[in-house]
Each structure stands twice: as structure tokens, then as C-alpha cells.
Amino acid sequence: MKKIKFKKVSDLIIDFSKSYPVLLFYIVSNFINSILLRLFTTGSFQIRALFFDLGFVILFTAFSFLIKKNKKKTYYVITSILMVAICVINSIYYNYYSSFVSVSLLATSVFVQDFGDVIVEFALDFKDWIYIWQLIGLILIIIKYSDREKNVKRSFTKVTILSIILVGIGSAMPPYNSWSRFIKLWNRVAVVNSFGVYTYQVDDLFQSLKPTLNNMFGYDNALKKVTEYYDENRKEQSINKYTGIFEGKNVIAIHAESLQTFAIGLTFNGEEVTPNINKLIKESLYFDNFYAQVGVGTSSDSEFTYATSLLPANSGTVFVNYFDNKFVTMQNLLNNKGYYVFSMHGNVGDFWNRDVMHQNMGYDKYFSKSSFVIDEEYGLGLSDESFFSQVVPMIKDIEDNIGEPYYGTLITLTNHTPWDDADEYSDLNLTKTIEIDGEMVTRDYLEGKVLGRYIKSINYMDQAIGNFLEDMEENGLLDDTVIVIYGDHDARISKGNYDYMYNYDPVTDSVLKPGDEWYTEFNDYDYELSKKVPLIIWSSDMEEVKTISVPMGMIDVMPTLGNMLNVYNKYALGKDIMNITDNENVVVFKDGSYVTSKIYYSARNNEAYAISNGIISEDYISINSEYANTILDISNDVIIYDLLKELK
Ligand code: GP9
Ligand code: MN
């Protein structure tokens, strides 16, 4: 029998490197560079990124087989220059922004100017240029060696398949939420960590082209439609008793992460979850039927809709995909009136692309993570307590050195899902104690449950806000300042958790079922309505204190609060709620569902759920559904075709 001879792997490699020295060097060196880039920037070494990096370089190699023999070396050099440039630029950029560069950002002139400064300031570090070793090595090898010729077609197919296999293996590895990050691309660091820098840069290129592709089709039509819409439906600045009541006052708007209305006013074992907010509400205009209207851009969508009175885009996220477009915002209107406008947040500056978008929105300055001492961390980062305590002297400094009036957005962080440290920062007792057969029995109830952690986290946020307001007062910063608090969106806790909270029976230690005597119904619509978030407007000399229950969306904040500050946005699609006398308003959600004072309409089920008594006509539903579609459509066209640039 003939003996099959296996060659040793080392022999195979030696053979291969003798036959294809240039190709081998090209693959290995570019692969090493991408690993170095991650190590020198984020310090991450995720195994899945290795598969993507290698798969990417091998795919580039596959294309080399389609290139004529005499051009092949040029191909290796040009593509290597490209990959080395990606590494060098990203390395320099990371020093300054703690993030990775985007093709779309480079396209904005403001940014290019900034980046020019960065190069001058930071490009002197040796480690940023180390990647060039690859080009030097490649040229030396090309001068000395040449690769053997191969069967072009077969090699191309084989190598492409190898690349696909590598990417496939990488995709099957954790973290499993990385594809959603890949598509949204707002967390660039995470994308580079799990896909490698080359794949990230291609992803970024496609995402950056999206708006341009959109613009190529349908622009004229959209412009005509939107112009007509504004001509027919423009809401003039309202004149009511609230017009200008806060004119010239400072404003501090607290963007309260995931704060839902249902938690406000709750008590457990006699203790209030939100004692400070409850107290504040008693001295405020409180909107208790208020909804966020976010899409995939969550926090950033909320900021966008609040500022512009437009709904978020249908695809992509305004902060990430349309950051360069023209918008009329509360911030730039106030800025034009002489306000100093700033934002403060304990997370990294490029999260949701805020460092770029806030500038576009009219903020004079965004104080992000690097402006704070990170001395206490919960969940996503700097704790709210520490954040707020550092914010007060910063505001004082603004008041003393820049002057009044000012408008500041303070974005909280600790109440972001998953609230893992909740027991550490709140001692709210969420157990239930009852007497059974003469004995006191304590049940865990919400302790250890996700909803329990969330409620404790809200309790913590309330303390942080309470301390902040006290601190502001002590520093004399509240006298001439309006405080706005809004929940940015719901906490995305599933319905079953609410069923449990409302229907837990401590006697049997089980959850009541429909038909049981004390069962509280909590259906799909109740669940949707429970996503309400609070909106509170407080000022020390508030003449009128009341709770307003007209259905209201984030889209209505700009016209409502704007009117109180006496600024007018003629492209607002929302309404001044203080003008509404019949309780009628339509709050439109991103999926086409909406809520009025009478119904919640679900676009998914094409079904209306009655909120108040009375007969609902078909007409009522069809008129409001049409309105919802129009608002979504006009908002989207304004955003994706950048129509305010033209209309302004
Ligand atoms: C992060 C914070 C959270 O900086 O604003 O964003 P979200 O996940 O809620 O959109
Ligand atoms: Mn948020």
C-alpha cells in the first residue's frame, strides 16, 4: 500500500513563504498593524476582531489575483498605504477624541479644521507612526523577491472562501450585540474592538454615504411637499399668558435617563421613591401625560426632538447620520438671543456623536467625561451624585465668568439599564411584610427583580437631583433660573415585570391571574401608556402651579417652553400645549402609533384602545392616523433631504 506523506506544517509555511514571500508579508504585516492599533488605543484584544482583521486582509489579497502580473506589486503598495493610513490617522485621532475617525466627519469643514489642530498637537508620538514599518518592509521585500504565478481563478475563489470562513467564525463569537452596534455605529470604540479597524472603516464609509444616496433621489419632490406643508400648517408663535414668562432667565434642563412617570409618587413600606421630585412637582408646572417619541437613537433622539420639534429620522439616527444638516433648535435660538448655551454629561464625548452634534445644535460648549473627575462609577460611568456635585461649581464659574443668561443641559447617566449596582446606592426597602396566622412574614417582592433595581435606581436619581437643587440654592444659583426635568424615554422593561408588580400576592407568594379577586388588569395598551415620562418646569417665582394632563410629546416641548422663553421656531411640528383648551392633542410615535386624550392607536395591530369613555368614530381614527403619517413623513423629509438649509 502506498503511504500517504503528510508534510509538517512548518514545512508548508516554509514552502509557501518561498513561493509567495510578498503575499505572505502583505497579509501578516497588515494583520499585525490592526492588532497593534487596537492594543495602542483601546487596549482591547477581542479574539473575534482577529478573525475579522485577518478575513479582511485576506479578502484584499484575493483581489490581487485578479490583477495583471506587472500591476500586482503596485496593488499591494497602494492598498497597504491605505491600511497604514487608517492605522496612523485613527491612532492620532484616538489620542484626542478617545474614538475613531469617520469619513463623514472628515467631510465637514469645521471638523477638518479641528483635526488639523489635532495633528499639530498630538502627532508627535512615536507610537502613532509605528505602522509605517509595514510599508518599509513591503518595499524592501518587493525589491528583492517576487511571487510565483498561480492559477488566477482558482486562487481567487479559494482565498475568497477562506476570507468568508474567517469572517463567519468571527461573527459566531461574542459579544452578540455587536451587530446592532455595527449597524447603528454610534459606539465606534465597541465596533473597532469587536470588528477590527479595517472592517470598521468600511462600515463607516457606507454609513457616511447613506445621506448622500438619499439626497440623490426625491429631493425636489420632498422640498415641494414640505414647503406646501409649512405654508398651510405653520403654527405662528402663540400669544398666551405664558408667553415670555421666563424671558431672559437662566435655564437648567435635566435630561433624566430612563425616568418614567409611573415611578413618581410610588411608595414602598411608607417610603416615597421620589421624595424630592414629588416636592418639586408641588411647586411646578407638571405635565403628567407626557411621552418621549424616540426611535433607535434613544437618548439622542430625545435630545433632538426636544430641541427641534421634529420627530427622529425613519432610518439611522440624526445625531449619527445627519449631524451635519441644518436644524432650528431651542439652543441656537437662545444662543442668538445672547444666551451662553452648554451641555454637561459624564460619558465620553463621542457617545451618540454628541461632541459634533451638540456644536451643530448651537451649544457653545459640551463638557463631557474629560471635564469631570471620575471618582465614583455606577453602570455606564460617572455616578449622578458625583456628576451633579461637580456640575454646581462649573455652573457657578459660568455665571461668574461668562455671565447670564445661560442655558444648560445636564444629561444623567446612572439610571441607565441594567441598574446592577442598585442595592449599593439605594436603601429603599422593596419587600412586603404581612401577617399570616399571627406571624409576620416578609416576602422579597421586588427585591432582586429588574423592576426593583430600576425603582431603587430612580430613588437614587431623586436623591442626586435633590442634593443638586439644594447645592444650587446654597450657591445662589436658583434665584433666576428655570429648572426643567424630562425623562428621556422609557426604561425598556418588559411587560411581565409590571404584571408582577401590580399583581403580586404576598399571602400565597404568587402572581394573581385574570379572574382572581384582586387582579389588576395590565394589558398591552396599559403597558404602552405606562411608558410615559415626566416633564417638570420649575422656577422660584412660579406664579401658577398646576398639573397639565393634555397628551403631550417631546415634539411639543420646543413650542411650549420656547414660548415661555419667548423664542419661536417656525419649523416646529409640535404645539404649544398651553394653547390647547379642549384637551385634544395627538402624540405620534415612531412606528405610526399615537395617543390622544381618547385613544391609544396601535399601528402594528391597526387597533384603537379607548382611554376615555365615549364613542370613537372611524373618522376620528382615520383623521388622526393621517395626521400621524404626515408628521412622520414631513419630519423625515426635513431631516434626510436637509430641507431647512434650503428653506432658511
Ligand atoms: C449615554 C446615555 C445613554 O451617554 O445618554 O444613551 P441611551 O442608551 O439611553 O440612548
Ligand atoms: Mn437615554
What is the CATH architecture assignment of the largest domain?
Answer: 3-Layer(aba) Sandwich
Distance between the termini: 86 Å
Biggest sheet, spatial arrangement of strands: 7-6-10-1-13-16-4-17
Gyration radius, rounded: 29 Å
The profile of the biggest β sheet is: 8 strands, mixed
Class per helix and strand makeup: alpha/beta
Distinct ligands: (2R)-2,3-dihydroxypropyl phosphate, manganese (II) ion
Q: What is the multimeric organization of the chains shown?
A: single chain
Total number of distinct structural domains: 2
% residues in beta strands? 5-15%
Instruction: Please report the first level of CATH classification, the CATH class of the largest domain.
Output: Alpha Beta
